[in-house]
Design a protein that fits this description.
Number of strands: 0
Radius of gyration: 45 Å
Order of helices and strands: HHHHH
Helix content: 25-40%
Distance between the termini: 117 Å
Structural class: mainly alpha
């Protein structure tokens, strides 16, 4: 620690002190803290439950029941046969058609054998009841098979022509699939684009 000179005219400043002629350095101003009121959220009231809205199929989408099942097994063909009980639109593959026809023929043969062995009418009665129950799906299956070959389902009326009508329908049912038969598929409406008509007309048979 040094002491000021007694003979000096200027006052000596000790270390750590400021000269009277100089102002102490000022600290940079600190901005006042910004006060933000807390955001109070009241109790949230539960809103009404929205009803279930089923998914809307895309505009112009094909109904899955209209599509044929190619290379179907016996179980798959029988499942499609009863699932599309009265579906006359769409197509059916050859495997779908002939597995069902084979089942019908086998059932008729088995019923005839059992009826001949037992000589009872109840077997014939059961067979008639089964044929009545499967009459409509059999017609629908034949129509869809014609659609798959790109023929109109109205040609099934040729079955009523004596002698040759059955053979004509049989030959058409044996023909392979034709891509042009997709025109008989049922198209779902879905969401309509703006400016389109509201009716799509009946399905083509």
């Amino acid at each position: 620690m040094s002491y000021p000179d007694q003979n000096s005219q200027e006052p000596q400043v000790l270390p750590g002190y400021f000269s009277p002629a100089e102002a102490p350095p000022q600290a940079p101003p600190v901005p006042p803290p910004h006060y933000q009121a807390p955001h109070y959220q009241g109790p949230q009231m539960p809103g009404p439950l929205s009803p279930y809205v089923p998914p809307v199929m895309q505009y112009g989408a094909v109904d899955p029941l209209s599509l044929p099942y190619y290379r179907a097994t016996f179980g798959q063909a029988m499942g499609q046969f009863f699932r599309k009980y009265a579906t006359f639109s769409g197509r059916a593959s050859r495997s779908e058609f002939w597995w069902v026809m084979l089942f019908m023929a086998g059932l008729f043969l088995a019923g005839a054998i059992v009826n001949a062995l037992t000589r009872s009418d109840w077997v014939a009665g059961l067979y008639v009841m089964f044929m009545m129950a499967t009459f409509v799906p059999s017609l629908a299956l034949a129509v869809r098979r014609l659609h798959d070959a790109n023929f109109s389902g109205g040609l099934l009326w040729l079955w009523l022509v004596p002698y040759v009508g059955f053979l004509i329908v049989l030959v058409m049912a044996l023909l392979p699939a034709n891509r042009q038969g997709a025109r008989f598929d049922k198209v779902c409406g879905g969401q309509q684009p703006y400016g389109t008509a509201g009716s799509y007309g009946p399905p083509r048979y």
